[in-house]
Structure formats: structure tokens, C-alpha cells
From TrEMBL:
PANTHER family: PRESTALK A DIFFERENTIATION PROTEIN A, PTHR43162
Annotated organism of origin: Ephemerocybe angulata
One of the Pfam families matching this protein, by short name: NmrA
Domain NmrA-like: 81-245
Domain of life: Eukaryota
Protein name: NmrA-like domain-containing protein
Length: 284
């Protein structure tokens, strides 16, 4: 009853692997680059290379029955669909998909990105759990860490929106339940949020108090964000998608998640996370 974790050494994949190992569930990493945590079995796997699809099912000592789908492609379905079809034939019992809480990833014909894979799993009548987290707390380091270290600033288009950032550990905890005991979940499409509803100016204030130096929030327009993402090498369609998601937040979509019966509230708050990771934001 091995769980195949795609995406190599991703944050949620590593955290999930640790929980599975602690409970005695075997883990196999599928990685395009070969970068996986020490001590885990791995196999070359690339959604853009169908010749690697059989690999996970031929690793000695592993019978893959669960697959954790972590997708980095903007339009993943054409690449992922053939693998899902093969995995079903190979005996996979359940797919756990990391999707998004964004309404643009809602299941249906107008879905985007991972939501299209979610829709396919549902249309095929397969056993699946679609995890729908809001913004990762870890984005504070990945997306804003450089700006905080270099210029003491957080820059995005979210000047007024309040968002419940969710930590990787909380996402991994729900992913573990989706594999080990799915009956503990309230539904098969849980929305995952953190315990704190904060604006980015409020987050900047937390950084100020934690780091002992003034961190400010510098708002930019949606168009400025779109252009900025393109300068970082983000493809145009994906840059537009990300800018649109930030714009959605201004209307309070994350605040509304608190009232959604499908919502699971995590344990790790933004304040706690910033305190724990403050060394990552030491001034350059």
C-alpha cells in the first residue's frame, strides 16, 4: 500500500512523507530531477515524459495504491490524464490532489490549472481527495523573503484583503488523513485555511515586531503585479491567472471560507510561523 508522491522534494510532499513513514506507510518519491529526501526510495518520474509513467509500478518492494498529485504545470490535464488512466489499470485505489481554494479552480468545465485534473477525477468516478488550500504561509519566505531581507518591504496587490494563510504542515496533515483514514475528513474536497485572518499590512507589522526592524507593505496595482511576474519568467497566461487570484481576494473570498462547511482550519498561525522562521528574514 505504497504512496507515490509526485513532485520530488516539494514542501508538502516531504512533510507528508514524514507522517506516512512515522505511521508505517511505505513511500515512493517520483522525481524529475532526482532531488528527494535522504532515506526514501525514489524513481525517475516526469509528467511531460510518458516513458517514465510505468516506472513507479516496477519498483521492487512497492505496490502503489495511493498517489499524491502535485502539479507544477499551468495546464496539467493533458499530461496528467494519461498517467491517471495508467495508474488505475495498475491498481491505484485513490488519488490525492493538491489543488487550490480559488474559485477559478472549482470543479467544472470552466476550471483552471489543477481544477481541471480535479474535474477529470470526478468525471471518471475515481476515488480521490482534492485538497484546496488557500495561500501557503511559506509564501512569506518564497515570494517575499528577498524583498524583506533586501528592502524591508512586502510588495503585492493585496492592501486591504485579509487572508488565512495555511502552513505546509497543516496541509500535509490533511493529506495524511486522506491516505491513512479518509473517514476523518468532513468531505472529499476540503478547503484548508490557517487560524489567522490577516491583511498584509498586519503581517508586515508582525514581521516588524519579530525582526526588530520596520517592515512595510508596499501595494502595487494588478497590472504592475502582472508585469512583475513576467519579469520573473512566469508565462503570460499563468501570470494573468495569479494576478486575477490576488484581485479575487479584494472581494473577500478568503474571509468567506470561514463560513464554508467544507473548510478545515489548521493549527499553525502566521505569527507562530514567522517567529519560528525569523532567521530566514535576516537583513542582507
Amino acid at each position: 500500500m505504497t504512496t507515490l508522491i509526485t513532485g520530488g522534494g516539494s514542501q508538502t510532499g516531504i512533510a507528508l512523507a514524514k507522517l506516512l513513514r512515522e505511521s508505517g506507510h511505505p513511500v515512493l518519491f517520483g522525481s524529475r530531477s532526482g532531488r528527494v529526501p535522504d532515506g526514501y526510495d525514489s524513481v525517475k518520474f516526469d509528467f511531460t515524459d510518458p516513458s517514465t509513467f510505468d516506472g513507479p509500478f516496477a519498483v521492487a518492494g512497492h505496490k502503489v495504491e495511493y498517489v499524491y498529485l502535485l502539479l507544477s504545470l499551468f495546464d496539467p490535464l493533458p499530461h496528467v490524464k494519461p498517467f491517471i488512466d495508467l495508474a488505475v489499470k495498475k491498481g491505484v485505489k485513490r488519488f490525492v490532489l493538491l489543488s487550490s481554494s480559488s474559485k477559478r479552480a472549482d470543479k467544472g468545465p470552466n476550471s483552471f490549472v489543477a481544477g481541471r485534473v480535479h474535474t477529470y477525477l470526478d468525471e471518471q468516478g475515481l476515488d480521490y481527495v482534492a485538497l484546496r488550500p488557500t495561500w501557503f504561509t511559506e509564501n512569506l519566505s518564497r515570494n517575499y523573503g528577498f524583498g524583506i531581507k533586501q528592502w524591508n518591504v512586502i510588495q503585492n496587490s493585496l492592501s486591504t484583503a485579509r487572508v488565512p494563510l495555511v502552513a505546509v504542515d497543516d496541509i500535509a496533515s490533511v493529506a495524511f488523513q486522506a491516505i491513512a483514514d479518509v473517514s476523518k475528513l468532513p468531505n472529499r474536497e476540503p478547503i484548508l485555511i490557517g487560524p489567522d485572518l490577516l491583511s498584509y499590512p498586519e503581517i508586515a507589522e508582525i514581521f516588524t515586531k519579530t525582526l526588530g526592524r520596520t517592515i512595510s507593505h508596499s501595494p502595487i496595482s494588478k497590472d504592475e503585479l502582472f508585469k512583475q511576474l513576467q519579469t520573473y519568467g512566469v508565462p503570460e497566461l499563468f501570470a494573468q491567472y495569479l494576478a486575477d487570484i490576488e484581485e479575487d481576494e479584494i472581494s473577500g473570498v478568503s474571509e468567506a471560507l470561514l463560513k464554508n462547511p467544507n473548510t478545515i482550519i489548521g493549527k499553525v498561525g502566521a505569527r507562530e510561523w514567522i517567529e519560528k522562521h525569523k532567521v530566514e528574514f535576516t537583513a542582507a
